[in-house]
Amino acid sequence: MSKLRGFKARRISIEDDPRQGRPKFQRTDENVQKITDLIKENPRTTLLELEQDTGISETTIGRIVPEDLKLKKTPAKFIPRFLTNEQKLCRLATCEDMMEMTRTDPEWKDKIITGDETWVYGYDPETKPQFAEWRDPKNPETRCCWSLFSENKGIVHHEYLPAGQTVIKEMYLGILRQKWTNGGWILHHDNARPHTAHLMTSFLAKNGTQILLQPPYFPDIAPNDFFLFPKLKAVLKGRHFDTRDDIIEKSPLALKSIPKEAYKNCFDNWEKRWRWCVEARGDYFEKF
Q1: CA 205, CA 183: separation in Å to the nearest integer?
Q2: How much of the chain is helix, strand and coil, in % rounded to 5?
Q3: pLDDT tens digits, residue range 119-134?
Q4: With a threshold of 0.85, does the pTM exceed it?
Q5: Considering only CA atoms, which of 117, 130, 139, 132 is closest in space to residue 244?
Q6: CA separation for the pair 182, 185 (Å, rounded)
Q7: Distances (CA, A) of 103 to 80, 99, 107, 108, 221
Q8: Element containing residue 88 per DSSP (H, E)
Q9: Where is this region: Disordered (predicted)?
């Protein structure tokens, strides 16, 4: 009933008539707590899923999450991209070079030590198509960065980086200086800044260490990406770690679960992948 019609009918109250529907004000402490609990339970939930679970409008949730909870959604996992022609040619040339090196010296792979870093999280769900999660920039989730080096006989070195720190060139150099100061081996790693810094290349050249660089977008042709990291995380998926210390204490058990012969099979498979990449003319040859 309009206010004019109400007054004509001698209505005194100016309050609206009761009606069904969604409350006008949904940004309450109770609703904020509901959304907080749901995001803690599943950091990868979407605004639409939150609306379906709570009955609160997506618009209101879209204000509560960044303004009240101070969260923003960021990618949690690397997702391969469509390759440009230049990137395909780079992958093709790299694989052809490594195949040629194998023909020249069938035993050269025995000299390779491959190194990389990966994040281990407090909780990594077993299956989830969405790989972005709500994070508080001031209070990041429980996780730590794990630096690993392996060869065709197994793991040769692994260590966790200090809390809140990613790999930097001084730290990476410290690991190499501590472990390998003699020549005669080949270092395989990607072209991340700490790996290709002048400080690093000078040290490796001084010690006669050959470098086998991995260009970008090579997850299907990098032993750590197609073998080691998936093996480790398959054991860790679905497990909850309350603190960073829990991760450091328990996750190395995943390394011990990998048999030594699996590393040799990995390096043999690596050689096959060079050929598959060449046959695919540098494109990805398997689905992710």
Answers
A1: 9
A2: 45, 15, 35
A3: 877 656 544 444 566 6
A4: no
A5: 139
A6: 8
A7: 30, 6, 9, 10, 18
A8: helix 85-104
A9: 1-27
